[in-house]
Amino acid sequence: MQKAKQCLKLFLVMFRIGLFTFGGGYAMISLLESELVSKRKWVETDEFYNMVAIAESTPGPVAINAATYVGYKLAGFLGALAATVAVCLPSFVIIFIISLFFDAFLSLKYVAYAFDGIQVCVIFLILQAGVKMLLKLEKSVWNILVLISVVACMVTLSVLSIAFSSVWYILITAGLAIVLYLFTYFHARKTKEKGAEK
Questions:
Q1: Which of 97, 125, 143, 161 falls between 20 and 30 A from 38, CA-CA?
Q2: Cα separation of 90 and 96, whole Å?
Q3: Crossing angle of helices 25-33 and 2-20, rounded to 10°
Q4: Helix locations, 137-165, DSSP H
Q5: Do 126 and 27 form a contact (C-beta atoms < 8 A)?
Q6: Cut 0.70: pTM above it
Q7: pLDDT at 42 over 70
Q8: Where does residue 62 rank: exposed (0-12), middle (13-18), buried (19+ CB within 10 A)?
Q9: Interior angle at CA 58, CA 57 and CA 60, nearest 5
Q10: What are the C-alpha distances in Å from 65 to residues 51, 59, 80, 93, 113?
């Protein structure tokens, strides 16, 4: 009974996020954080940012991956199913209805105005999510170095019109993080062994 109530709650929250968010997964990040971290306290801030990083790194839209993760954490398989279906359902229904009369829909002047307004809103939502995550980032030398390096590479490659997949940024920084972890692990182990010898 408790799990069914949790699944219903998850469904309603994710359905509302899916219904009122335009612009895809990145635009949903801010709403997901507000709903899951601030209001409902279903996940901690650090866990949320780790979830976003993993959801972005795995195949599929970030919002769907995040919804599946939160659903599974709170109510197991049924929670994951409820959250995933709920976040996808509004978009599916709206796109299906629009597809029935797509050409007539796009020719409406007010629809074109609405889409122009939505584009501005989506840019703001994505920027807001990015700035929030940046401000809450742990201010360590490693994090700042990685951030500056990735931004510098992205800007340079964009200016030079060189195609470079964002997947490579994720793989390279993940590889560097593993190297750093191994270095600190073995350094700590070596220090501990020296301390034990004395």
A1: 143
A2: 10
A3: 130
A4: 141-159
A5: yes
A6: no
A7: yes
A8: buried
A9: 120
A10: 9, 8, 10, 20, 31
